[in-house]
Design brief:
Length: about 300
C-alpha cells in the first residue's frame, strides 16, 4: 500500500510505502523533516530542528572520527537501508553495463546517472548533518519532477564549483596574454604558473565546505569565504579528513572503467567490483561532510 500526502511545509505531493508509516523522513523539495502518516491525505507531523542553548553550541560535539570511520559502516548492514542500497547497485550496474551500449545517448545516460547520484549524495550530507543515520529514501518522481531531480543537482554542483574556483578563473583570464592556459599551466615552473596551480588546489580544498553549505544551508548566498575559512581554521584536522575522503572518492572514480564485451570475465568482474566499491567510499565521504556540520556547527557563522 502506498501512502500519499502533502508536505506540511511546501505542500509538495509525497508518496511512501505503507511500511514506512511512523518513520522520520524529509521532503526532497524544501527539506522539511516530518513523520510519515498512516493513511492518505493525512497531514504529517513536522519535526522542528532542536534549539540548543547557546552554551551547548559553543563547543564541538565529540566523536567525529568514530562516527566517520566506525559508525558509517552500520549504514551498509542496516535492514532499513536495503532498498536504497539495492537501488544504488542498480544505478551502478546500469552505468556499467548499459550506458556504454547506448552510444547515441551518451550524454543523456551520463546526465541521468550522475544527476541522480549527485542528488543522492546531497541528501546523504543533509541527513547526516541532522542526525538521520540512514540512507535517504528513494523517490524518483514522474515526468517533469524526475527531470528536475536529475538536473537540479548538476546545476548546484557546477554553480558551487564555479563560485569556489572564481579566483582561479579570474587569474587564468588575466594571465592568458602571457601565454598561460589550462593546457600548459601544469608545467613545472616557478612564478606565475606555480601561483596559478596553488590557487586552483586551494580552491578545490575549499570545495567540501562549499558543498556542505549548499547541501545543508540550501542558500547559495551563504557561499562566502569567511563562512568557509573560519570552521576550517578552528577544526583543521577533521576538515582534512573530509577532504581526504572526498579525494579518495574522486581518484578511485577516475580509475573505474565500464563494461567492454571483448575483455575476459575476470576483468569485467574486477571492474564492476571497483565501481561498486567507489560508491561505498562515496557514501562514507558524503557522510563525513554532513558529520562535520553535526560535530562542528558551532564554528559555522550561519
Amino acid at each position: 500500500m502506498t501512502i500519499r500526502f502533502n508536505c506540511p511545509n511546501c505542500d509538495a505531493l509525497i508518496a511512501f510505502a505503507g511500511k514506512h508509516s511512523g518513520k522520520r523522513a524529509r521532503c526532497l523539495t524544501c527539506g522539511q523533516i516530518f513523520i510519515i502518516p498512516s493513511r492518505d491525505n493525512e497531514t504529517p507531523k513536522k519535526i522542528e530542528p532542536e534549539t540548543k542553548p547557546q552554551i551547548e553550541k559553543a563547543q564541538p560535539l565529540p566523536g567525529f572520527y568514530h562516527a566517520v570511520f566506525l559508525d558509517s559502516w552500520k549504514i551498509f548492514i542496516s535492514p532499513e537501508n536495503a532498498t536504497s542500497l539495492v537501488f544504488v547497485i542498480a544505478v551502478v550496474c546500469f552505468k556499467f553495463f548499459l550506458a556504454p551500449a547506448i552510444c547515441c545517448c551518451d550524454y543523456l545516460t551520463f546526465l541521468i546517472v550522475w544527476g541522480w547520484l549527485l542528488g543522492f549524495y546531497f541528501n546523504i550530507i543533509y541527513e547526516s548533518a541532522f542526525e538521520i543515520d540512514k540512507l535517504p529514501e528513494i523517490y524518483l518522481g514522474t515526468g517533469v519532477t524526475f527531470l528536475w531531480y536529475v538536473i537540479k543537482p548538476f546545476l548546484i554542483f557546477f554553480f558551487t564549483m564555479a563560485v569556489v574556483q572564481l579566483p582561479f578563473i579570474i587569474a587564468l583570464a588575466l594571465l592568458r596574454n602571457k601565454g598561460i592556459t589550462t593546457e600548459n599551466m601544469w608545467q613545472a615552473e616557478l612564478g606565475l604558473r606555480l601561483l596559478l596551480q596553488l590557487l586552483f588546489i586551494f580552491s578545490l580544498f575549499l570545495f567540501p565546505m562549499a558543498i556542505l553549505t549548499v547541501a545543508v544551508g540550501k542558500d547559495l548566498t551563504l557561499l562566502r569565504p569567511d563562512y568557509f575559512l573560519i570552521p576550517i581554521f578552528r577544526a583543521p584536522a577533521p576538515y582534512i579528513v573530509v577532504v581526504v575522503m572526498l579525494i579518495a572518492f574522486g581518484v578511485l572514480e577516475m580509475q573505474t572503467a565500464q563494461y567492454e564485451s571483448e575483455i575476459p570475465l575476470a576483468i569485467t568482474a574486477g571492474r564492476l567490483t571497483l565501481n561498486l566499491a567507489v560508491q561505498i567510499i562515496a557514501i562514507i565521504a558524503m557522510r563525513s561532510i554532513g558529520l562535520f556540520y553535526r560535530h562542528y556547527s558551532c564554528h559555522l557563522k550561519w
